[in-house]
Amino acid sequence: MNATTTIQLDTRDQDRRREMRATLLIIALGDALVLTIGFAIAYFMRFQFEWQFFNEGSARTAFYAVLIAILVPAWLLLFWVYGLYDQRNLFGGTQEYERIFNACSLGMLMVIMITFVQPDFIIARGWLIIGWLATLCLAILWRFGARRVVYRLRCQGKLQQRVLIIGANAESRIISEQLSNSPISGIQIVGFVDDHLPPDTQLIPGTKVLGPISDFERIVAETGVDTVIITDTALVRERMATIYGAMETLQRLNVSLAPGLFEILTIGVHVHELGAVPLLSLSKTRINGVRAFIKAMIDRVGAFFGLLLLSPLLIIVAIMIRLDSPGPIIHRRRVMGVGNKTFDAYKFRSMRIEGNSLLTPEQHQELKQHGKLKDDPRITKLGRFIRRTSIDELPQLVNILLGQMSIVGPRMITVEELEVFGRWRHNLFTVRPGLTGLWQISGRSDLGYEDRVRLDMHYIRNYSLWLDMHIISRTIQVVISGRGAY
């Protein structure tokens, strides 16, 4: 590597760092502004508009001005502690919003504890409640808006994260394709490092093997990567020393270990000691214990009120199906559920009873391969409407009420489809299938089986209440647009 190339790489690396520092500074200043506004809103609501939940406190303007001046930096410190200024935790997924919730809640809890320890330190409880809610909502809205701006900048080639993948196997290829598929991710795969394939071997279009692992430190320096991903089968123990050495030399380098492609995506990992030896303990799924209880309660309550509110619509659709074509109103489909148990999933019938006789040999083959037909002659006119609007799936609220399904979860599959999921199918049996899910908001029927498997495994691995809320809100948008439904 000559001196000119080194200077160019250093300049490019410095430019990326400046971009990220400027972005984080803007994020922090925006946080400070919305937190100040949130606390100020709480003051005006509590004292100026007399939203008095409790009969205590007084409108001590100077006191609350000083208090806000103290709390805003304290909240920013909590944001930093919770990793909200770490680029790895920003601009993707729902964990950023969960961290904001935890930081705001912990901060307010600490203030409440101080008021108990110091009785002379009197703060209106109404102000605390409104302040917590206002700062939480405004911070989330601000981060949501900032994320949209960052997505646009990434599509323009800015704020890119350069990634190097160690290992050039099937897992590496799929990981690189997933990371490169979306321009809003800001991920730029610069290449692969592998001992088994010669340099310049192209693993995916436009991306090739850059050299063996022994040249790892040189490759990192030449490419100016920010992140290295190690696939689980790519390295033997001896090669890890090379990686660790580069980590010590290059402090900016983030190194991540990729789990087995799908084998352990649903496994929760916890550190525990056995005889003073630190070990990794694996749990079956992340959706267990309190999480599972809360999710089940939300499902049952949501399904009950959903059926109650939608009952007029359900009755009207049932009558229309009866008048539209002969046959039962409800279609029962035998599907796989949690614990490898089968159950009947309910849907409004959208097809003709003897519809299979209308299929051509080519359509039979397409149906066998994809499970659906884009132009299905078996579907009635009314059926096309209720499918496009997802009204046909509303009877599954009964399945949710019975505890067989969840509002959000992986896509339900039949016994025949298990073969497609192969060795990953057992992961599906750890959670209930969902009325909606990542597959619903990511293309629905336009997706192939490989993408459906990937999305289902991603949901099981990354489950959180925030993710469920995000999926539900996106589902409403997708249903209104009718995208991917047929």
UniProtKB/TrEMBL annotation:
UniProt xrefs under Gene3D superfamilies: NAD(P)-binding Rossmann-like Domain (3.40.50.720)
Q: Report whether Protease shows up as a keyword of the record.
A: no
Highest rank taxon of the organism: Bacteria
**Keywords of the record:** Cell membrane, Membrane, Transferase, Transmembrane, Transmembrane helix
One cellular-component annotation, GO:
plasma membrane
Task: List all membrane-crossing ranges.
Answer: 22-44, 64-85, 97-116, 122-144, 301-323
Keyword rRNA processing included in the entry's annotation: no
- Please name the Pfam families in this protein's record: Bac_transf, CoA_binding_3
* Family in the record: Belongs to the bacterial sugar transferase family.
UniProt name for this protein: UDP-phosphate galactose phosphotransferase
